[in-house]
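Homework-ish question, so no full write-ups if that breaks the rules, but can someone show me the predicted structure for this set?
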Amino acid sequence: MIASDNTHLAAPGFASSRAAKIFMLAARIVLGAVFVYAAYVKLRDPWELFAMSINSYEVLPLAMAETAAHVIPWVELALGLMVISGIWLRISGTILSLVLLTFFTLMVRAYAKGMQINCGCFGPGEAISWKTLLRDGSMAAAAIAMTCLAFLQRRKTAA
Amino acid sequence: MKLCALLLAAFIPCLGQPLPADTNKAFGNPSAPVRLDVFSDFECPACRNFHVNMLPQIERDYGPTGKLYIVHHEFPLNIPAHKLSREVAAYATAAARIGKYEAVADALFQKQPQWYTENPNPIKFWDVIAGVLTPAEQKKVLALAKDPSVLAEVQSDVDLGNRLRVDSTPSFFLTHGMQRFSLPYQGLTYPLFRSMVDNMK
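A: Not a homework solution, just the prediction itself:
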C-alpha cells in the first residue's frame, strides 16, 4: 500500500512541487522493492552464503559476519516495507541512506583494493564491478535525495 | 509438461539436471544427500590453498559419514601465467583413468610452487606425477595423456564450467536435492561450509 501525505500539498517550494512528489513516489517504490527483493534472496538461501559474502570483504571477524548475515536481511525487509508504505519515512529513509552508503563505501573499498569478490547484494554470483558501483551509488544518491525531500516537506508543513 | 520444465529451468537456474560426474575424480558416497562440485586449475594458488588446507578437513569429517559426495572438475584457465594448466589437467585425467587421481592431484598441488609457470626455475610437472606412480602406471598415464578421449574429457569439464558461468578458480557448487548453490571462494571458511552442509538434512 502506498501512503499519500496530503498535508504536504499546500507546502510551497520545490519540496512540494509535482516533480518532487513524483520523484519521492518513484524512489520509495524502487528503493523499497529493491530492498525487499534483496532480503527475499538472502532469506531464501542458506544464511551461510551471505555470511561468506560478508566475510569476503574482510572487515568483520567471522562471528560478527555470521551475526550480520542473520540480521541484515530482516533489516532490509523492514526498511523496504517501511519505505514503500511511507511509514516513518524520515526515519526509515535516513536508516536506508546510511545502510546504502555503508554498502557503497565497502564496495568502493573492495574495488579500489582490487579484491575480486562478489558484491553479495542479491545473493552470490555477482562480482563487484563499475556497474555494481554505479547501481549502488545511484541508489544511495536517490535514497539521500528522498530523505532530504521528506525532511524539507516536513519542515515546510510545520512552518 | 516439457514446456513447463524448460520454462522452470530457464527462470530458476539453480534448479536443473544433476551435474555429470567422473567417478574416478570423486570422493565419498555417490548417493550422499549433499554433493560438492569443485572446479580447479592445477596452476591456481587459491586452488592449491583449498586442496592443501580445506579439502583434507572436509574428507576427514565427511568421508566416514556418507553425507557428502565430492566431485572434481578440471577448469584450466586460458591465461599466460597458466600455460601448463591444460596439459597438466590432461595428465591428471589420465591418472584418474587408472584410479590415481587423488594421489596425482595431491602431489601436483603440494608441489605447485616448484613446477608452475611463474617459477623461474621450475621442475618438470611430470617428475611430480611420476613420483607417485609405479613405472607401469607411468607408462599408462603417458599414453593416456595424449588420448583424444582424455583431452575431450578435460574439454567437457571446461564446457560444463562455462555453462555454470564459472569465471574463476576454484569454483564450488553445493547441490542438495533440487537446489544448487554457488559458493564464493573468497569468504569461504570451513566453519561456514560445515554449518551449511550440516544444516542440509
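Now go work out the reasoning yourself. Hint: The interface with chain B takes residues 45-46, 48-49, 51-57, 62, 65-66, 115-118, 120, 124-125, 127 of chain A (CB under 8 Å).
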